[in-house]
Design brief:
CATH class of the largest domain: Alpha Beta
Helix content: 25-40%
Strand order of the largest sheet: 5-4-3-6-2-1-7-8
Number of helices: 17
CATH superfamily of the largest domain: MutL, C-terminal domain, dimerisation subdomain
Shape: elongated
Strand content: 15-25%
Length: about 575
């Protein structure tokens, strides 16, 4: 007897539903996208119990015709496409005809809808995919869908869901991403009866960004606008100080569709290559517009993933647009002043204690991680581009150059980070132009483990481009024969091993070359504690101003901090 059978309709529908609605956030996404496709200008979303107890999405869109309401819960019933050729030119968010059937199969669902020309609305109640009742009802124009007891008939799926708080967080993230994509639509979102998000629907993306990410974080963004032959970019990029240890502040949209794309994330990371430390990820809200035929949105049941027809072109153009925006923006960090308060001397003494002395160096160090960099309604200092002409005042702790701009602002420059940036840019330009001068050194032998040896053999040409001529010498040994001419000191064994290990970590040639350039520039730069003459400081500041990104070292650590003259005067009560 054969073992293959046809699954019954209920089982098949529940399996199909699991592909589209794997958790409450997916149900919210599908319902809100349907509301947007219906032309809604106001969308009200409310959830309870992490979306398992209830989900309600009400809109003022075009509504559903009464005769179409029963069809809406049938699989693959859709008003968005007619032919397979339509899939190559999709502009709508929902088109599969799976959202309502999938939700209805695993919940108790109620649909209330009315079109503008209808005198009465239509109501449909469905439990577990089966119609319980339908008829006319009085209701406003638009559609309201209420989902209760999600997954009540699929208890196995409930075991794989997270806590109520975790599921609510996923729903919140979904709503926020959709609200950012549609600033002209007013979103109202509440959780367990408490309002969480309200947007004005005035079409201003920055206003929605402030609502979603908070005003303090929102002020760390600057505009992105770029037009390429294949795509256009609009939105906002975050300053390096807003970077996080994860990608939660990255929002990508393709033709208004929220997506998660490793390709776009990698391109964004490359744009910030020398502006951020390792394992820090920039913030961004980026909208890509391109011909729908260039992107396949039909590769995932929940439409979260996309596939590009020309991935390398998309990558290069995205990278170019992001880099252009970064080059045009001042990324100098501000030093946050301590809150003004009356100065007091301990025990009546007129000698300040160590704790009461304001240290500029400590403030600079603290500002590397302190967020926000300014408070209240203060706006960031919009500095000229590139750095203004700076006049050195002296050194602090043998590490920082204190300088003054023509406007009277105080600048604090980390001398090692600044010199590292200068060397990196010169080094990279010489490599790109093929004009890197090298010098022979006393041959140094380095022995590595087999894994690193294999990686290094495949990367010898990359090292040679960076002026590091390495020859094989036995199975796992190599001889270093040349270094770049600007490199004044000897490379010790640890330095060489660190460079060699980079070949194992970065298999892609461009990334490896960048890492080598950063390591070499760091090793050759002046160190903390090295005293500089006034002329040397002036020359370093002038050279820094000529670099493409004078605000950080190549590893992303801040190189320049500023303290505006006006802020200083206000702090001391001079205005």
């Amino acid at each position: 007897m054969g073992k293959i059978i046809l699954l019954d309709e209920a089982t098949a529908n529940q399996i199909a539903a699991g592909e589209v609605v794997e958790r409450p956030a997916a149900a919210v996404k599908e319902l809100v996208e349907n509301a947007l496709d219906a032309g809604a200008r106001q969308i009200k979303i409310s959830v309870a119990g992490g979306g398992l107890a209830s989900i309600s999405v009400a809109d003022d869109g075009s509504g559903i015709a009464a005769e179409d309401v029963p069809l809406a819960i049938l699989r693959h019933a859709t008003s968005k496409i007619r032919l397979i050729t339509d899939l190559a030119n999709i502009r709508s968010l929902g088109f599969r005809g799976e959202a309502l059937p999938s939700i209805a199969a695993v919940s108790r669902l109620r649909v209330v809808t009315r079109q503008p020309d209808d005198l009465a609305g239509a109501e449909l109640v469905v439990h577990g995919g089966k119609i319980v009742s339908q008829g006319e009802i009085g209701c406003p124009v638009g559609t309201e869908i209420r989902v209760e007891e999600l997954f009540y008939n699929t208890p196995a799926r409930l075991k794989f869901l997270k806590s109520e708080a975790a599921e609510t967080a996923r729903i919140t993230d979904t709503v926020q991403r959709l609200a950012l994509a549609w600033p002209e639509v007013s979103f109202s979102y509440s959780v367990n009866g408490r309002e969480q998000l309200v947007t004005a629907g005035n079409g201003q993306l920055l206003d929605v960004l402030f609502c979603v990410l908070g005003r303090q974080n929102g002020r760390h963004f600057f505009p992105l606008a770029w037009q390429g032959p294949l795509l256009s970019l609009q939105g906002f990029l975050g300053r390096p100080g807003l970077a996080r240890a994860n990608r939660n502040l990255q929002f990508f949209y393709i033709n208004r569709r929220p997506v998660r794309s490793p390709l776009l994330s990698d391109a964004l990371q490359s744009a910030y290559l020398t502006l951020l430390p390792r394992r820090r990820f920039p913030a961004a809200v980026v909208f890509l517009e391109l011909d729908p035929s260039e992107v396949d949105v039909n590769v995932h049941p929940a439409k979260r993933e996309v596939r590009f027809a020309r991935e390398q072109d998309i990558y290069r153009q995205f990278l170019s647009g992001a880099r252009q925006a970064l080059r045009g923006e001042s990324l100098t960090g501000e030093i946050p002043l301590p809150a003004a308060r009356p100065f007091s001397f301990p025990n009546g003494s007129y000698k300040p204690t160590q704790e009461t002395i304001f240290s500029v160096a400590e403030a600079a160090a603290a500002s590397e991680t302190a967020l926000p960099l300014w408070e209240g309604d203060r706006t960031p200092n919009r500095l000229p581009k590139p750095l203004p002409t700076l006049r050195p005042l002296g050194q602090l702790a043998g590490m920082y150059i204190l300088a003054q701009s023509e406007a009277g602002d105080l600048y604090i420059v980390d001398q090692h980070a600044a010199h590292e940036r200068v060397l990196y840019d010169l080094f990279a330009q010489d490599v790109q132009d093929g004009k890197l001068a090298v010098q022979e050194v006393i041959p140094q032998t380095v022995e590595v483990d087999p894994q690193n040896a294999a990686a290094l053999v495949g990367a010898l040409k990359v090292f040679a481009r960076a002026g590091l001529s390495l020859d094989t010498f036995g199975h796992n040994s190599f001889i270093l024969r040349t270094v770049p001419l600007f490199f004044r000191q000897n490379l010790n064994q640890d330095d060489i091993l660190m460079l060699v290990q980079a070949a194992s970590v970065h298999s892609e040639a461009t990334q490896l070359l960048g890492e080598i350039l950063k390591m070499m520039a760091c090793k050759a730069a002046i160190r903390a504690g090295q005293l500089l003459s006034r002329e040397e400081m002036a020359h370093l500041l002038a050279s820094l101003a000529e670099t493409e990104q004078p605000f950080t070292c190549p590893h992303g650590r801040p190189a320049v901090m500023s303290l505006a003259a006006g802020a200083l005067a206000a702090h001391f009560g001079r205005r």
